[in-house]
Amino acid sequence: MEQLHGPPQLQRLSCHGIGASCADCALNSAQWILCIIPADRTTAHAITVRSSARPYQHLSVSAPFIAVVPAWARVKLVNDDDPCGLVVALHWARLRETARNALGTTACEIPCWFKAWDPFLRDAGDTLSALHANSSPDPRCLAAFADVFALHLAHRYGLTADTPDAATSLTHSKLSVVEHFIHEHIADNIQIADLAAVVHMSQSHFARAFKTATGHPPHFFLTTERLRLAQSMLSEGSLSLIDIAARVGFQTQQHFTAVFHRYAGCTPRAFRIAHYRP
Question: Residue 257 sits in which domain range?
Fold first, then answer.
């Protein structure tokens, strides 16, 4: 995607394709942050540029997640032969000013170095890309999008800018968000770190909070959700076992059969014979 520019007094946002190099050196300064929105199978790694003043940090992000990192971080792609996605650069000071004016001083700090499941920002990125794919950007449109990004980032993440684990427990609403994510992406290779990112927690804190809230570790819950869906498919449909295994997130039919037998006490084939309802 072509670099987007506007007059200096209005330029709060700039964006380019995830595989394109940014020609504006000013966007690499501490005055900007990057919202990385990978698409398809593109995976981006954001890494701290080695410096005595900065601790080493590393973050990997792929769809359906987004990441927010400082603009001076180095972003590398795994499959850079055909990268898909968007990088949105946002002016740090103007983001904070917009958030402070709209939300108050307690919510104006916007954190960096985090990964999150954020369908709203993914949709906003898609809209921004489509609007400016084949035309010159309107500076007023860019300013409006900058305000949208600023308010969303501050409202959703700003109150926990200093500590993403400020919440000591998983509320019912947060558990519902986790369950929704699992059901929507059940066929994907979901990691516990992904579930933690959904509710903006560290992996260790999320695992403890999840077990406290449900009585089971997150991996057990994820596995039982996969098997519950598999049992429904076995009872009501005629899909092959290998197709069912893929649709509920198992890499191979053999692994699916082994896990199913361990939890259900019989093989998927035996379960289908006993429970099939055409």
Answer: 220-275
Q: What is the mean pLDDT of residues 248-272?
A: 95
Task: Give the 3-state secondary structure of residue 172.
Answer: helix
Using only C-alpha atoms, what is the Rg of the chain?
A: 22
* Spatial separation of the C-alpha atoms in residues 176 and 213, rounded to whole Å: 12
- In the chain the beta strands, taken as DSSP E runs, fall at 13-17, 32-38, 43-47, 58-62, 65-70, 74-77, 85-91, 114-117
In a domain, 165, yes or no: no
Residue 7: per-residue pLDDT: 42
The pLDDT score that the predictor gives to residue 157 is 84
Reported pTM:
0.80
Kindly report the CATH number assigned to the domain that includes residue 264. 1.10.10.60
Q: Report which of 149, 141, 143, 200 is spatially closest to residue 170, judged by C-alpha positions.
A: 200
